[in-house]
Amino acid sequence: MTGPQTSLRLLIADDSSTDRLILQAILRRQGHEVLAAEDGQSAVQFYEQHQPDMVLLDVMMPGMDGMEAARRIKALAGEKLVPVIFLTSLSDAGSLAQCLDAGGDDFLPKPYNPVIIKAKLGAFDRMRRMHVTLSEQRDLIRARNEQLLQEQFIARRVFDNIAHTGCLDASSIRYHASPMSIFNGDVLLACPRPAGGMHLLLGDFTGHGLPAAIGALPLSEIFYGMTSKGFSAPDILQELNQKLTRILPTGMFCCAALVEVDFRHGAIRVWNGGLPEGYLLRTDGSREALQSRHLPLGILPPERFAASMEEYPVEPGDHILLMTDGVLEAEDAEGQQFGADRLAGVLDRPLPYLSPVDQVIQAVQSFTGGARESDDLTLLGLKVTGQDPVATHAVPAAESALAGPVRWRCSYEVDGEALGQFNPLPLLLHVCMAVAGLRQHSGDVYTLLAELYSNALEHGILQLPSAWKDGPDGFARYYAERERRLANLHGHSIRFGLEHCGRNHGGRLVIRCRDSGPGFDPNNLPGPATAYAGRGFTLIRQLSSSLTFNKQGNEAEVVYDWELTGNGGGRTEYE
Amino acid sequence: MNRKPHLDEEALAELRDVMEDEFDILIQTYISDSRDRLEALRQALSDGDPDALAKAAHSFKGSSINIGAPRLGELCQIIEQAGRDGDLDTGRQSMDALEAEFATVRRLMEEALLA
Prior knowledge:
Chain A is α+β, with helices and mostly antiparallel strands. Chain A contains 16 helices and 20 strands.
């Protein structure tokens, strides 16, 4: 029973002077500092002045009695635990209970017994110290929690700056995500490509809270950075996987789906690693599952990671739907999961006035019946349109729009195996973007480069007939054949020559693209209905001042004239 | 009826030990306080105020028990109870016994102080 002897500051109040003298003597002998009051009123005053550790009060005192004094002292003590012990020769249970109601913690019977007094004070001192410790720890936890919330708020701000919503607000995109979804580890990204079309990414990091949110930062930065620089989806996936594998601890990864949407050619390319199957919902009511065929991002080393994508032709009116597992795992009050069958039931009955995203969300919410907030489910949907939904955004002209190198030329050649594996377009675009004013026209420039490159590679060298692309079967055949011919490629090359010079309020970019193929007869240059349809010549002509070919038909020259515009609009005619 | 001793020698010895030099002061304080309390009891009886009687008896009881005068404490208890019951007659009847007991206690204490 004997704890370490601690010296306490004690307040006693008793109107009987002998009792006061005795108690005071006992307590001083036990090593405590004692303040003695003769009635309740002065006890309360002493308490305010000296803040004692414990208070011992006689119950019956003239003037303010012990119970009232106890009430006032407890009120003054507030959160602090100040044990109040009643000194009493009362013996009936009712009076004792009244003392406890007044805030008393215990009784000390008369006559005083020093051994009992010591034991009680020791016990209350331990309780008091524990209370102090608990209060300190509670304050610490409260402070930490506030700090954590503040940090989450800041993290959210930082995240919003980096992982801005991109083009998620485009009219053809619908999505559902909790405002704090970042702390569920869910990531929703959409970014227009410089050549038109867009990349969509839905990611779901393992875990919750800040650890799950942290991986989202490099993910978004790479996604937005590389997409706007014109990198292809497989290049971006490689980079994302490599980065996440390096920075995420073992056991943490990101289930994700990336969709490259090409409105112009009416095609989507899909990569799904670990997310539930997404869907391509066709206008005729049929649907194709976009299944996970890969491990999530952040697991495989780069050399074992496969960024191969599956391509699907699409038509205006088709819908793409991606979701996290929160949709399938949403539970009703009985703990039953929404599940794949219910989802299929919803998708089987498309409603013309409701997007698939809204339809699924409504179904899940009516299923859960508000059993739980649908915090943990994220959906992303895109309606395929004939027109690119994100018109070239007006890039505000830089202050020194005519800065940067104005007169320059360069030549860049890709040959051998690099032809099939390496995408030279981001690099070439980067060179062109050194001309500050040309940045307003990055979409045009990228499109010109991309069309020239794919014509040179697929038609000039690989000799693929573009007519194959018509119809779903031809589409698959075209790409299978492309892969096959690329693999057997020897001794071929593609050379780009770029030349730029300044003009009054803009400049002229000349792009030459020469391939090592046999060429074609440029005099027989066709309309859309001929064998050369699909080569994108029409598009190039629309964007540029001129498109010409050499005699052999293996070198194309495009002249692109640009002017600084206030609204970032397109090129100007060259006379 | 009253088997309790006038003075609890053991309790007094303990008090002497606890109070050290202040033992004399304690005893003298007790004796002078007790005179006041006896006066308060008489006053309550003559006023016919059972509540005041009970309170005064209660205080007297507490200090008597604490000082080691258990028989006196017991008599106080009887008067306190009488006050609570509003039974002033029993209170009056017990006063003589109480005053006699206090005189005894006081004598014994003063002897103890001289010893």
